[in-house]
Task: inverse folding
């Protein structure tokens, strides 16, 4: 595989940024890697693990002459990081991110991106509950999906290189517009997180002592309620309209089931459960 | 451990009934075991695996002279099985079940239980997605909780023996009245199932093709939507009032989060997420 980028600046050397650096270096896709961040301990760990060659706390220093700026910080901070780095990048450089929400980010980044730079948003749908460079792993992305949401001013060459980067670390890459991405993710990821957080809150509202009797169904339903609250607050705010719509769709489905239960309508309950069961089993069977 | 029951009839030799027979026999808690059921293949498997000594399709034959009738059939069928077996049981015998809903079952069973028999409801909170005697395992219950909901006419000796049975197969046993059991289980188990089924239905309502992009958060949230629809229809109907109330509590919690998101109220979102995260992490830390 030919080298795609000579010098990469990774802003936010956490689980995702760190894992991409490890995987892309192992595949020979990128050359020098410079880390940009605030946490000294985390950046030091990243350097010790060979994730970055060097690091800096200064955006202009870290981004100097890079031909790829990969912004792997919380969604609400992406545009600010791009603004702080842009003038130091090599002419024609590619700017990308790994955020879970794309439309707001695209709008904010493109509004202030200097001419000659291409913004190609990306969302690698992978992750674990741990965070930080210490947990980065070269195989984190293998077999999972990545969605690209290129900006309107992104060059075809820039899009192709970002696609090759994520494909090169083992992902299946799709491309769609940012609004559709945000609609899809609101349903398959942001809604599940909203439900998990709310299910725990509902149990506390009902009677916290009930938790003593909670078993595997509660455990799995609420697993992601242990996730980073800062990151999820950020995602919910950045994708508010789509999350609102996904919640509406969900509440309607739940109320249909509730009304069938309250009416004692066994046929209608069975119809609802069988539809869900069939789809869930099919979904599961299609996955390794 | 002294033998608790000389002859046990297990009505419904599935995962739970079969596992109890294996575990209780291994611990020397019970003597002869007779299976009662409809499915010839399943009963044959149970006999081959040493779960039952013999089996019958005839209630009076299967229950003859038993000092424990353990009814491990769907909630809606328990009272009918007790009615069909009661006259053949040994005088003073104990009748128990393993249903996930207790109040309706207790009312229906006690309404027609012959004098001299004790009904001691039990709910071993354990299980896997598989069902049938083929998947029964002696260690299924170890370390999990069991709730006893004895009838008002149950003798103290009968309650003590049923408690000793479940403790003897490794469960931590609590006792409470049936209405409280149903309230607790609505919150920690029946609601999670209603949410899982409804989350899959909501995804189908939004756009079935979105499922291609669903990852681990969707997978875990909806795992139990692959469960038996017959059993869950039965549970929702038998515990309708408590499930209705649990859904109301949940929807209120979800709407609080939704309104904070729509208002863009970061402080309120964080407060909701942090409350849930702390409780979920604490719950998780308290478990092996």
Result:
């Amino acid at each position: 595989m030919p080298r795609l980028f000579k010098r990469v600046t990774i802003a936010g050397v956490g689980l995702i940024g760190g894992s991409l650096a490890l995987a892309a270096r192992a595949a020979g896709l990128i050359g020098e890697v410079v880390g940009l961040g605030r946490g000294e301990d985390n950046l030091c760990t990243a350097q010790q693990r060979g994730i970055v060659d060097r690091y800096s706390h200064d955006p202009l220093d870290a981004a100097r002459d890079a031909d790829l700026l990969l912004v792997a910080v919380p969604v609400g901070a992406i545009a600010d990081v791009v603004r702080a780095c842009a003038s130091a990048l090599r002419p024609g450089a590619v700017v990308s991110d790994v955020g879970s929400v794309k439309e707001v980010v695209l709008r904010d980044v493109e509004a202030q991106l200097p001419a000659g730079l291409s913004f190609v948003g990306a969302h690698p749908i992978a992750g674990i509950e741990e965070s930080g460079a210490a947990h980065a792993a070269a195989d984190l992305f293998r077999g999972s999906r990545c969605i690209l949401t290129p900006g309107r001013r992104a060059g075809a060459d820039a899009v192709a290189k970002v696609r090759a980067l994520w494909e090169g670390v083992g992902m299946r890459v799709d491309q769609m517009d940012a609004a559709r991405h945000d609609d899809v993710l609101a349903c398959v990821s942001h809604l599940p997180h909203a439900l998990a957080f709310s299910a725990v809150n509902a149990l506390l509202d009902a009677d916290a002592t009930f938790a003593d009797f909670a078993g595997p169904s509660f455990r799995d339903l609420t697993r992601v309620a242990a996730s980073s609250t800062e990151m999820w607050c950020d995602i919910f705010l950045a994708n508010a309209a789509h999350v609102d719509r996904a919640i509406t769709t969900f509440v309607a489905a739940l109320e249909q089931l509730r009304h069938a239960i309250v009416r004692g309508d066994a046929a209608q309950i069975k119809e609802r459960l069988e539809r869900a069961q069939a789809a869930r089993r099919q979904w599961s069977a299609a996955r390794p």
Remarks:
- The mean pLDDT of chain A is 96.
- Residues 119 and 132 of chain A are 25 Å apart (CA to CA).
- Chain A touches chain B through 87 residues (CB under 8 Å).
